[in-house]
Amino acid sequence: MILNCPIVKVTASRSIPTAKTINQPVIYGYYDAHVDSMLSTDVSSKPQATANRINYSAALSARPAKTFPALYMISGHAAPNQPVVFGTEPGETDYSPLWDEVSVKWKPGVAPVLLVKDDQIKALVASGKLTMTPTPVILNCPIVSVEG
Fold first, then answer.
1. What dihedral angle (degrees, nearest 10) is formed by the CA atoms of 128, 134, 140, 143?
2. Element (DSSP H or E) covering residue 29
């Protein structure tokens, strides 16, 4: 077999950057009462991708959401400055940069407290103070800094 592969001169309209880093916003959250930082890159929901200015990836929906660890997103009435709560972090055996988005909401009449642990969320759900609703949304958001 003979291949005819001519070399074509390509003129780039822009040169390759030399910077070794880029600046992107991180999202802070709690895991076992300490702060971790994650970088949001992709999500399986078009509206969420647009709202958060990240990539939409339909391929993230290829596996069931419950395959991944939970990322608890608190909605509605919440404690002041309530961030997300991670279900795991790097170094744990179940850590994955892919997350199953779980919606958490305080029940009416319950005074919100700061949520800082996944076990705390599960206990408050069991006691009837919170609702926890699975979603079909998968996020690709690696934790890039563990503060604890």
1. 10
2. strand 27-31
pTM of the model: 0.84
**Beta-bridge partner residues of 34:** 31
Tokens 């596996």, residue located: 63
Look over the chain and give the mean of its residue pLDDT values, rounded to a whole number.
90
2, pLDDT greater than 50: no
Mean pLDDT of 49-64: 91
Write down the domain spans for the chain: 30-146
Q: Rounded to a whole number, what is the distance in angstroms from the first to the last CA of the chain?
A: 60
Lowest-confidence segment of 20-24, 38-42, 95-99 by average pLDDT? 20-24
3-state SS class at 50: helix
The strands making up 34-38's β-sheet, listed across from edge to edge, are 55-56, 42-43, 130-140, 98-106, 70-75, 84-86, 27-31, 34-38, 143-146
Q: C-alpha dihedral over 79, 84, 89, 95, to 10 degrees?
A: 140
Tell me which residue of 102, 31, 97 sits closest to 60, measured CA to CA. 97
